[in-house]
Design goal:
Layout: H1 7-20, H2 26-36, H3 44-53, E1 88-94, E2 98-103, E3 112-116, E4 120-121, H4 125-132, E5 154-155, E6 168-169, H5 172-177, H6 182-185, H7 194-203, H8 206-221, H9 226-237, H10 244-250, H11 262-276, H12 282-291, H13 298-305, H14 307-321, E7 327-328, E8 336-337, E9 343-346, E10 357-361, E11 372-373, H15 382-391, H16 400-411, H17 422-430
Parallel strand pairs: 8-11
Antiparallel strand pairs: 1-2, 3-10, 4-7, 5-6, 9-10
Helix pairs in contact: 1-2, 1-15, 2-3, 7-8, 7-11, 8-9, 8-14, 13-14
Amino acid sequence: MSVSPPEAELKDALVTLKHQNPSLGISKIYALLLRTYPNWTVSEKRTRKILQNEGLVLSSTPIKRTTIAYPSSRVIPHLDVTQWTNKVEVNFFDQQKGKGLIATSDIGEGEVIWKEDPFIIAPEWDLFNLQMKSMACAYCSTPLADSSIAGSPIPCPASISSAFCPARFCNRLCLSRSAKAHPLLCPTQNPASVPLMKWTKDGRWMALHALAQCMSRILLASQKDEATLRADWEVMRGLAALGMEERFNYSFKSVGNAEPDRSSWKKAHQLCVEAFKEPKTVPEKKKLARLLKKPLPADVERELFEYDPCFLRNLGSMSLNLEGHGGLYTLHSHLNHSCRPNASVRHLDQRTALSRITIVAKRAIEKGEELLISYVNPELRYETRQSELQGWGFGSCRCELCVEEERQVKDEPVVPVPSGMEDLESELKAGLGVM
């Protein structure tokens, strides 16, 4: 009986096939998929969409690879970890691994280690669409219909009939906290941001959305005082970073055209400059000037707006540090990866603060042990996990699980080529599979 596979299972299969056959184009991968899974019903359009979303579309110009680049990482000066928990401390391991979190006491299985609200939130697109429809809190992203907080949602105070802002907030606390980033992304207060946010939404580019939120927060912090600016700026500078060019050159997903590509990076930079620094029209310039009355320090302005390497590094940093649902969290960003993690990230406050994360121990953790989460689904095949991690610039994973499974893969006997695949194999060897 033919079945339509779930999206996650199909994605896993396609990423694995592409990793094993990097020279094959979309049509050949599609044919290989149907032969490998004869009971699946999958359209070529669906295959193409997943491959494109994963950045696995071949280009005609092969990429020359040199020494692998790894993300850079730095400790955030004066970070007070105790504002979240007294159960961990920051440790810097080495230049390649960077920083991480070490348990300062024994932690029991199932124990809550800390809870954390986001530095910024660039929510998943379903939630973002609800925000744009005034159906989810524009700060914490909690669906307003599901909120247990009494009272009616609070609209953006700047919204007027002639310049509508769809932002609604759970309560006055969310409204107050939104002042850290919302004003510069509000279509009423800063209409110059509208093209940036529309282009981000149309392209479903979460990293750019997150960077827009970060830039807005830094710019607005500069309007308060030096201490606020430097505290927020150090958090952003402390995030693990790998520039877009490095990701393009060393990511397995960039064997073909990187998604988004270089032209998209330049367009993103142009829109950010127009939104936050040099609006195109006089009325837009006047509105931005009302929000940004104090000039940025020269070092911060350069790091935010200089295209290469600063803007590209910041854009790449967003992709590396965003939590799965789109939040960027200060302490969470210190957690390193293992395919056999001892901690997990959960969203437990779904009715009152959806964007708040809770870090829970998956097993007992001893004092001095590093806290580890999984950046990928640990249930995926060994090859697929390795491919996804290398795609983000993390190199080969050498956790206990991967070492064990690597040994098993090497010990597995060679599987004969299934009947009917000889043509595909010969085309691959002859280099005829490139589209």
